[in-house]
Amino acid sequence: MLRKALTLGTVFILALSLLAVSMITCFTYDSEADAGAHGHFDCKHRVTGVTVTFHTHPGDPPWDCIFKDAEHVTGE
After folding, report:
1. For residues 45 and 26, which has the higher predicted lDDT (pLDDT)?
2. Which residues share a beta bridge with 53?
3. Number of H helices and number of E strands within the chain?
4. Global pTM value
């Protein structure tokens, strides 16, 4: 009986830990999406020359990026 209770308790604690990790991950991705919602990065790959648009900065090594602020684009 005690072994069953300990097993169920352990499973419950692991489930709560997984829930906490998933919630933290979700909130982190939401905050990154909100930060990038007001603009985007136009990036050019240094080796291939391919131009790609990112909503978050992809990192420096292979990319040369310019931030384009959506609030200051007039569309003209």
Report:
1. 45
2. 42
3. 1, 3
4. 0.41
